[in-house]
Write a structure and sequence with these properties.
There is one protein chain. The chain has 267 residues and is an alpha/beta fold. The protein has one domain: Alpha-Beta Complex (Spore Coat Polysaccharide Biosynthesis Protein SpsA, Chain A), CATH 3.90.550.10. A 7-stranded mixed β-sheet has the order 3-2-1-4-6-5-7. The chain is globular and about 50 Å long.
């Protein structure tokens, strides 16, 4: 995975990693250890950090993560466990704020697309003279993606995409996918992000688009493990997300957006 370069063994905290992977974990006891170990193995040749943010679980998620951290073997991939208030957005925000990587990947507790998002970013860079995109979205809306959807779920997905375009003017097909972003950019946007739940990445990508940055959407394949346990988004969540689009429009409106970071976004 040449996108992030070879491993540079860190001495203390003097060198920032190339990649930070942020994983929200809510009632994730059945999958979180396997996910962390898969990531660590996949990134073993690279300088990376894994940050799991447990948020209000009622199972043993935090205990499992704590045990993993206590027995973690030092090496090129570090592992950190944090806690946040309940909500996917709260967890992603806390993890992104704590990250130090040149790139930050926001993913899910069961790696729904495997490593298609990272591989897609690498392919894009290889095809564009090494230019790393500022924002890459692992997109279920990409025409080359392989995602099984029932009729009802497909209809809801298309309807929500239309609402995003009408209410927020968004052009990204699937801002609810995984997001790989320039680290300075995402940390600079943290003060402007307020969504506590499932709309967090929609808000993030919306602000990115308002900065004039066009996210690169890459194709993904939904893993069999992810597909087998069904969606954890309820009907109430769908309704809340729909009304939340108007909340986002009201929150950000036409005000000027200032990125509080040390460098301007590239690309």
């Amino acid at each position: 995975m040449s996108l992030f370069g070879p491993c540079r063994y860190r001495i203390g905290a003097s060198v920032h990693p190339d990649l930070s992977v942020v994983i929200p974990a809510h009632n994730s006891a059945a999958v979180i250890e396997q996910t962390v170990r898969r990531l660590a193995d996949h990134l073993s040749e690279h300088d990376a950090e894994i940050i799991v943010v447990e948020n209000g679980s009622s199972d043993e998620t935090f205990e499992i993560c704590t045990r993993l951290a206590e027995n973690w073997v030092a090496g090129p991939v570090s592992f950190t466990v944090l806690q946040s208030p309940r909500g996917m957005g709260n967890a992603l925000q806390a993890g992104a704020a704590a990250s130090s990587g040149a790139h930050v990947l926001l993913t899910a507790d069961d790696l729904p697309f495997g490593f298609d998002d990272l591989d897609g970013a690498e392919r894009f860079a290889a095809e564009h003279e090494g230019r790393v995109p500022v924002v890459v979205v692992g997109s279920k809306a990409h025409p080359d993606s392989h995602v099984r959807r029932g009729i009802l779920r497909g209809t809801l997905t298309r309807g929500f995409a239309l609402m995003r375009r009408v209410v927020l003017g968004m052009r990204t097909g699937d801002p609810q996918g995984t997001v790989l972003m320039d680290g300075e950019l995402i940390r600079g946007l943290i003060p402007d992000l307020a969504e506590p739940g499932f709309l967090f990445t929609t808000e993030l990508v919306h602000l990115v688009e308002r900065l004039g940055i066009v996210p690169v959407e890459v194709p993904v394949r939904l893993s069999e493990d992810h597909d087998s346990h069904g969606t954890r988004v309820s009907g109430a969540d769908v309704l809340a997300m729909g009304t939340g689009l108007f909340r986002l429009r009201g929150r950000h409106g036409d005000r000027n957006l200032v990125v509080r970071s040390g460098s301007a976004p590239r690309g």
